[in-house]
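re: that chain from earlier
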Amino acid sequence: MGWTPLPIGIENYAEMIEKGYYYVDKTLFIKELLDRKGKVNLFTRPRRFGKTLNMSMLQYFFEKSERDHTPLFTGTKIMKAGEKYVSEMGRYPVIFLSLKSMKQDSYSSAFYCLKEGIAAEFKRHLELLRQLPLKEDFDKCRRFAAGKAEDTEYLTALRFLSECLAAVCETKAVILIDEYDVPLENAYFHGFYDRMAGLIRSLFESVLKTNNALEFAVITGCLRISRESIFTGLNNLNIISIMDNSYAEHFGFTQEEVDTMLSFYHLESKRDSVKEWYDGYRFGDTEVYNPWSVICYVDSYYKNPDALFKPYWSNTSSNSIVRTLVDRADLSVRQEIESLIAGHTIFKPVHEDITYEDMDSTQDHLWNFLFFTGYLKKIRQIQQEEDIFVEMSIPNIEVRYIYKNTVLRWFEESINKKNLSPLYDSILSGRREQIADILSENLMETISFYDYQESYYHGFLAGLLKNMGNYIVLSNRESGSGRPDILLKYPSVRGKAVIIEIKIARSYQELPGKCDEALRQIEEQQYEASLRQEGYQDILKYGIAFYRKECMVK
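^ sequence. v structure.
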């Protein structure tokens, strides 16, 4: 068997099939769309779960074209589903607009990007539009294709295009809008959310509400933005979120699909590890894998059998929402993040009608954003009166890695902003109670995910001390070869030197004894001898004991 390439970054269905990439057959998505007959269908799924590829597949299946697209679907499941479905192939004009590139830092730049996307669709259909009976309609189409229409005209451009295509093809249009919430998320983080929400609302109202030229529409995004905010008056809107059982297996890979892929590439022995790293998402009652990560891992392993498991999904977006949660976390949220990273679960109310503006209102909304964007998964759900409560956990090792690294980086940045001079002064002055108070206070603000092992406290203390101006900080976390845990030295031997030994207590009552044990170790191991040989005379020795977020210093 020759090498079958894996479709990393391939989002065009025709390219996937024609160039012989490995394809996980999701064509029954077409059958379910036709069976359910939804007029306007909004699918919300996390990033990198196959939304764009599925939309491209819909375009090639439904679009009326001079080119016969039947070969692209040879042998697929939809072709075996019956003539009722096959007869729908190539019947409709299709408008396909992706908003995923609207990530600019100003409204004008983002609007320009939208205009370019609309212009490309007019240009793609221009030859067909030459058949329009009215010259002024075709002239208007040409203006759009050239990007020379008035700004206000773009608000109704998609409706106009659908009406023109329906007139020429004598069939209503299928409209596909991909990643509709990318410009909204971007606008939220860049400070022009209201203007962007108004633009997207106008666009959608025009093309999706009482449009007689619309056969059906499919919209994808990461989040459902509330009906009142964007989908005003769309009483024909069918929303399919990760909470719904319908369409569940069409985004992401099922266990059977992953098993088939691993077998195809002779990686059956990696099944359990692939499951631990990339499985764990639940759409409705269907458990699915992150398709992007599975494909990337299989590709890397096939090229290099020594390839290690690593997070691939973490590099696919800015993780702005996780960062926002961490930045705004109060004490209770930090404790819940610790609990999640430790493998426990949390119960939270879930509201699907949220807007980006809601992110500021309560911490519960932040958990909602994490849940719907794939950073948490559903274990089970219960109804309490009008509210739905979901038990949530971190889906897998890959996402846990994202939390750990995001939290670590955030904590390091927050330390750099803090004034720690009272801690440094207390250490150099021998004020042990003040040292303990400051360390405990900082521990309360951290998020621990190492089960309070000594390495956690060592890293915590070394991080606090690394900016101690004028002092050399030597950390002996790795060697453990008869040297103190942390050593502080003034560059000149006329200054002070500080020896710190760390111990972990199993209870609060054990703290004093552990401090004494640390001090005994400093004496027995003669840690100060080398400092004396260097010429240091003023040497401070500290035994520091930790129990959870408490510490004692002697």
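The chain has four domains: 13-247, 252-315, 320-400, 418-553.
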